[in-house]
Predict the 3D structure of the following.
Amino acid sequence: MRLPSRVLLVIGFSCWGGIVFAQTAPSQAPPPAVGGKKTIVNPPPRTIVRAEEPQKALTTETAPQPVASESDIYCFGYLGEMSESFPVCISGAENLAEQTDFMTDDFLYTSGGVDRGLKPGGEYWIVTPEQEVFHPVTGRSMGRFYQYRGRVVVHSVEARTGIVRVTNACTDIPVGAYLKVFEPVPIPLARKSPPAVLGDRPSGKPRGRIVFTRDGVVALGTDNIVVIDLGAASGVGPGDFVTIFRYAGGEEFGVRPIGSYWVNLPPPEGVIVPRTYLGEAAALVVADRWAIVRVTDASRLIQVGDEVELK
């Protein structure tokens, strides 16, 4: 059978790589005039394509922002058991004859190798056990503070020893420091809201206290890193904010020494005093019963023992 000459066979390719066969409809002659008048054929409606409105760009006031830097988290430390065990320690160094403390790019020797699970390329914290931490009000022990000195990567290993290279030193690294398997900690993002001011009412959420500052710092301000006694068990998560305050009621409250700190005492039972707001802090690392926070705003000097409330 012979196809009409007005039929056109079109061969093309689809978006998925297949061959598409399409056949155009035969052209039709305009309809005949009726009663000597021309018949007007309306054209098909046009499709109007409107340009999408550009989305509004996020600003620093609306977009979540990092609440800390990497060094705030990786160069602080954590609360642990009083006698936490570590399988490997630093036993020597390539330049041991010339120096006693070590920094970035130094090569250190370890007390274990393949027998302690070290593998080339493995990454570890360098940790040193520090002082015991006591609660500023109850006086009970909260464990020991372990300081991050830096990070190392395993260069090579032998049966019972190995060589590691310091990739990042937060401070001096002594012989005798321990290796702890490195686990990346993400930097929290959060939207900041205005801090509480005089006359604001409490949020009614869990309350705790600042319990520790590294290096014995007693006068705290913006950017200081501290430990509080609120954690995941109290509903605190990374990126959450806590309000810092105290009850300033005069000499009858007083202070008392706890460890190496002088701590403001809470008001006696039955004494009601308005809050003095000191600032606020953002949670960086959260455990079950404690959290590491960074002071993001400080209107007055902050001390160990000052109270915090989840915002």
Notes: The chain has two domains: 70-181, 190-310. The first helix runs from residue 70 to 74.
